[in-house]
Structure formats: structure tokens, C-alpha cells
Specification:
Length: 153
């Protein structure tokens, strides 16, 4: 029997400052070390940094792209899913994960947070939206720890 990959949705800014990217990369590393893969929107910024950190630690990376061209995926995505759905793919990104880690981000991140909360997924925010249902964290280590502790058994 094949074991099913356990994925965490990492959502956040498509363009971000170096310190945000460093935090996202560290989150990806920590998730891989804990035995989780990363599912994201597959493009740049937080998505690329988290995928890079995960891949560097041997974790699985899955990118659900808004467009139909697989070449749009960042170089750290191992499994590319082109959708041609535009921003509607945000629902798929959070649906594929057991929980969501929001790092920085704007309106697209907010939409993913909303979908995740509506589906009952735990959401932890690192420098992201502070809204009801999102657990805030101050560091990548705290963010990953809080999220993993909130996953269903």
C-alpha cells in the first residue's frame, strides 16, 4: 500500500521583501523535516521560497497554477497542476492541504484564508491577516508548531 503525502497549504504574497522570503523558506524546511509537503499557487514570492525550503529538505512540492502553462511554475515545484482557472484556483490550493500557513500576503491570501476557514482547516498567520480564526505566530518555528498542533489526528 502506498502512503499518502501529507500536505500543508502555504499561502502568501507573490512578491515579498527578503525577510518574508527567508521566513517562508524556513517554514518550508520545517514542514519537510516534520514529514509534510507544501502545496501552493506555484508562482513566485512566498510560494517559491516555501517550495524551495521544502525541496531542499527532501519534501514534496505541489504547485496549483492559475494559468494553463506548466512552465509558469517556479523551479522548486515538483508536481505542477496547470488549471487555467485564474484566482479560482485559490480554493484548490487550500483544499489540497490539511491546514494553511499564511505568510504576509494581500487580497489573494485573504481569499485563501477565507476558503480554508470555511472548510474548517486550521490557519496560522505569520505577518499576515489578523482576523478571527487565524492564529497569529511571531516566527517560522512558532507558526509551523502551532499549525501542526492544530491538525486533526
Amino acid at each position: 500500500m502506498v502512503s499518502r503525502a501529507r500536505l500543508i497549504s502555504v499561502i502568501g504574497a507573490g512578491r515579498a521583501e527578503p525577510e518574508v522570503l527567508q521566513a517562508a523558506r524556513q517554514c518550508g524546511r520545517l514542514l519537510a523535516r516534520a514529514g509534510f509537503g507544501v502545496v501552493c499557487g506555484g508562482l513566485g514570492g512566498v510560494m517559491s521560497a516555501a517550495a524551495q525550503g521544502c525541496a531542499e529538505e527532501g519534501g514534496l512540492t505541489l504547485g496549483i497554477l492559475p494559468g494553463s502553462d506548466p512552465a509558469q511554475a517556479n523551479p522548486y515545484i515538483q508536481v505542477v497542476v496547470p488549471t487555467g482557472m485564474g484566482q479560482a484556483r485559490n480554493l484548490l490550493v487550500v483544499m489540497a492541504g490539511l491546514g494553511a500557513l499564511a505568510i504576509s500576503g494581500g487580497a489573494g491570501t485573504l481569499s485563501e484564508i477565507g476558503h480554508a476557514l470555511k472548510m474548517g482547516r486550521p490557519v496560522v498567520g505569520l505577518g499576515s491577516w489578523e482576523i478571527e480564526g487565524v492564529t497569529p505566530a511571531a516566527t517560522p518555528e512558532e507558526a509551523v508548531g502551532l499549525l501542526l498542533a492544530r491538525l486533526p489526528a
